[in-house]
Amino acid sequence: xxxxxxxxxxxxxxxxxxxxxxxxxxxxxxxxxxxxxxxxxxxxxxxxxxxxxxxxxxxxxxxxxxxxxxxxxxxxxxxxxxxxxxxxxxxxxxxxxxxxxxxxxxxxxxxxxxxxxxxxxxxxxxxxxxxxxxxxxxxxxxxxxxxxxxxxxxxxxxxxxxxxxxxxxxxxxxxxxxxxxxxxxxxxxxxxxxxxxxxxxxxxxxxxxxxxxxxxxxxxxxxxxxxxxxxxxxxxxxxxxxxxxxxxxxxxxxxxxxxxxxxxxxxxxxxxxxxxxxxxxxxxxxxxxxxxxxxxxxxxxxxxxxxxxxxxxxxxxxxxxxxxxxxxxxxxxxxxxxxxxxxxxxxxxxxxxxxxxxxxxxxxxxxxxxxxxxxxxxxxxxxxxxxxxxxxxxxxxxxxxxxxxxxxxxxxxxxxxxxxxxx
Length: 423
Known about the structure:
Largest sheet: 6 strands, mixed
Number of strands: 28
Helix content: 10-25%
Oligomer: single chain
Radius of gyration: 30 Å
Strand order of the largest sheet: 7-4-6-5-9-8
């Protein structure tokens, strides 16, 4: 970040901070949790590995057959005599007898290769000459190692499979199970306090009172936090008064690693979040050059344990809250759990619209992806209002429109798939 960039963050309440400046400012402020838990495999999906994981065994743990056929000694097939006696039958899970010169063994996929053998002949390339004597003719010779999955062909014992900071996927759990792993060391869950503000909000499940709306954000964001592996404490609909907001923020800071709020970070008479955070700590970032998502705040709140807790203040509109959570909060929380701090991944797609964009705010357009003869094309949804929550369910992702730009039909712009925000 350059000195001019730093000045752009703090020089005026009206200045808007570009995302390219905001993200490193936030990432460089974060603390990584040091505590960890040892958990069974069934409980670690989405969790972050606490220390480098080395393979305790090789996979496969022995040479085994890659197909149904006959285990042979390849040297026995080097000459003109292609007749072999069938000495044994080895299904998967069984151990066969050692093969001597001129001997073979009927073997099945995954079965351990018998001692003395070094190749497998496909059953299609063999024919019985004498069933009573158990003689087969090999129709095509094989080389040593052919149709054999060797010990450690998949994983070698001692290999570092997962570095500390790796977030565990379902496929990783399969790999760990193949190694016989029952438990693994992962970072402890982040404790997050989630607050929504506004006298107009009402929890789902009750008849809607006059003048009220249902609290969309707390349901949406808490599910996203749980998906990240966080432990969430929810504070519904904090009243729009300074005293009540202060009380809840003090409580939230005392019970969590970070506090996330939605609403109340604008400049209206009923918006008290900024004043409360500044009374308890410090605002490091205020307002983004982002659409939707301009009224965003980041800072720190003092708590009774004397450890400042990170604060993320999101806009109240559901789409704005979702976008700022996905672009900023999600990668920040993952970084606090030890993952590499990085923005969501995007790729280039063609667009089917044109516009001249004369704003300093980078815009994220909810869009559908369609295939065409020239590849994937992104088409923005018609209603881009930040209050239209259903558009998040309809969209495949977001087209990123740069500030002060001209977009022509067919231009290739960055596209962030919805999966980057959700998983």
